[in-house]
Structures are given as structure tokens and as C-alpha cells.
Amino acid sequence: MKTRLALFALLVGIAFSCSQQPKPEEGDPIDDQPQERVQSELVLLMLQMEAHIKSLKERQGRGDSVLPADFIDYAGMLTLATTRGMNRDAAFDKNAIDWMNQLKALTEAAGSDQKEIYNGLINSCVACHKNYCPGPVKRIEKLHI
User: Fold this and answer.
1) Residues whose CB falls within 8 Å of the CB of residue 124, separated by 6 or more in sequence, listed in order
2) Across residues 87-116, what is the average pLDDT?
């Protein structure tokens, strides 16, 4: 009887000790801490593009026209490093070139045509992001006028 009780206690002790998570020792990384988020070169450029587009939206909201001097060449989006897991392909490059052409058209258009061209520019962003990086789509859609 004592042997059975000792064996039962031993098995319970082993089961209990196996269910415990080992405590990290000093200097060991802790897995549940948030990892530093590294942004790709392309993401950083897209954030600059967003700030630029917001400034164009604000100008139009004040009734000011977008001017040719407001054009910024974002050709870097064709060559910058992408976020891990994103595959840049010919369709991405075509979307990027079309978008840059739309931005140029916006800066050269008459004031009365700019709202329509601007919203087309935002629609291009949304369409591309739905295919390649859907995370910021809702944020981009808020840029419509």
C-alpha cells in the first residue's frame, strides 16, 4: 500500500513538474515580449508618400490648386527593398509607374479636374494594396476627397 502511494505521489510530481514552463534564466530572451518592428525601405517611402498625399488633400480642401512644383518623383518604389514576404513583380511595377503618371497628371491638371484625378490616384493605391499589402487599405481609403 505504501509502495502504491509513493508511486502515485511520484507520478503526480513528475506530471506536475512537466506541466510547468521553465523560467528564463538571466540573459535569455523572453518570447512574449513584443519584437521590434522593422520597416522596409518601401514602407518608409510609402509613409512619405502618404504625408505628401495628405498635404495635397489639405490644399484641395482649402480650395487651392495642386501645382507642378508639388510633383515628387517616387521612382524609388521600383527598386527599394520590400517587406519580407512581398513579391514584387511586373504588375507591381506597372501599378507604380501608372500611379506616378497619375500624380504627374494631378499636378499638371486644371483646378476643376484635380478632385477627380486625385480620387483616381487614391483608387490606384487601394487597388495595388489589395493585391500586395492589404493592411493599410482602410487607412488609404480615408484619403479620398
Assistant:
1) 95, 98, 99, 102
2) 94
CA distances from 134 to 9, 18, 77, 139, 140 (A): 55, 42, 17, 10, 10
pTM: 0.72
Within a domain: 77: yes
The answer to whether residue 81 is domain-embedded is yes
Q: Is residue 5 part of a domain?
A: no
For 33-57, what is the mean pLDDT? 88
Q: Judge whether residue 34 has pLDDT over 80.
A: no
Per DSSP, the residues of 12-71 read: HHHHHHHHSPPPPPTTPPPTTSPPPPPPPHHHHHHHHHHHHHHHHHHHHHTTPPP-GGG-
Could you read off the pLDDT of 53-63 as tens digits, one per residue? 999 999 999 99
Residue 68, domain extent: 41-141
User: Is residue 35 assigned to a domain?
Assistant: no
* Structural domains counted in the chain: 1
Query: What number of other Cβ atoms are within 10 A of residue 111's Cβ?
Result: 12
